[in-house]
Amino acid sequence: MRTSLFASLVLVATLASAVPVIVEREPGFPSFPKPAKGGNAQTGDSGNVNGGDVVNEGWKIKNSPWANEAGNGGYTGTGTAVGGYGPGGGGNAFSGNSGNANGGNVGNFGGTIVNGKGANQAGNGGTSVSGNAYGGNGKRGYPSFPSFGKGGNAQTGNSGNVNGGDVVNEGGSIWNGWGANQAGNGGYTKSGTAVGGNGKGGGGNAKSGDSGNANGGSVYNSGGYISNGSGANKAGNGGTSISGDAYGGNAWKRGYPSFPTFGKGGNAQTGDSGNVNGGDVVNDGYKIFNGPFANKAGNGGYTKSGTAVAGNGKGGGGNAYSGDSGDANGGNVGNFGGVVVNDKGANKAGNGGTSVSGDAYGGKAYA
Q1: Closest CA to 363 of 322, 321, 313, 323
Q2: For labelling, which of 54, 112, 189, 256 has a CA lying 20 to 30 Å from the CA of 76?
């Protein structure tokens, strides 16, 4: 009896050791490798590069010819971002915002202010550009296990303001010599181009950032008695503001015989472009005397929102949206006082500039 029981236990133990142990495998086993996704890319923001100001404050201020020149704005830009590619889908790409590059201002604050010819030159706006962004593509998969990764999205940052600097004279009596008080012109600002990645699972979306303002600087004289010499008080012209183009990624048309693709084309949206208005000239006092050709307001500049082109795909074409374009108004001239005397050619308002919204093209649905 004992021998029979012992033999039975040995038989059970032998059979148990012969049963295979099932171990759970990690994803990505040899016959069906796990599709890897491309890495994302993002660039940082850039700083401000504004021009410096000039400020005089006192009871009596006398500025010699060509005195007081504010600094111009510099150049600020962010880097390009490129998403990685991979069978599991392309990486996303984001470029940073670019800083401001405004021109510096000139300010005189006192009881009596005398400005010699050509005095008080405000700074011009500089350049602000945000980098481009390119979403990664979804790479072709393996013959035995096709992948359907989607193209990466792309988005560019906003570009900064590049306004021209202002000239401000505030006092009891203000005497402006020939050609005094020149406000700064607007600079150049543009947001980067965004390009969505391509992929069998669908195209990536693309969105460009807003572009900043590039307004011309203004001239302000505020006092009891204001005398403007020949050609004094010239406001700045508007600059250029452009939002970048956006291109949605395509859903690759060709699929696999046993795995047809029906990905949708990526959407495309461009940012708004900024204002590029001409600067104003304003004289506010009790008695105002404007010499020949004094007080010239600035002209409007050029502003345009980018073109949007959506991607194509078997599952349907993407949508396209172009941004709003900014204002490009000419500047105004205003004289506000009890007595105003205008000589020949004085007070010329600015001309309007150009404002254009970009085109938008929806994607095609493949047959």
Answers
A1: 313
A2: 54
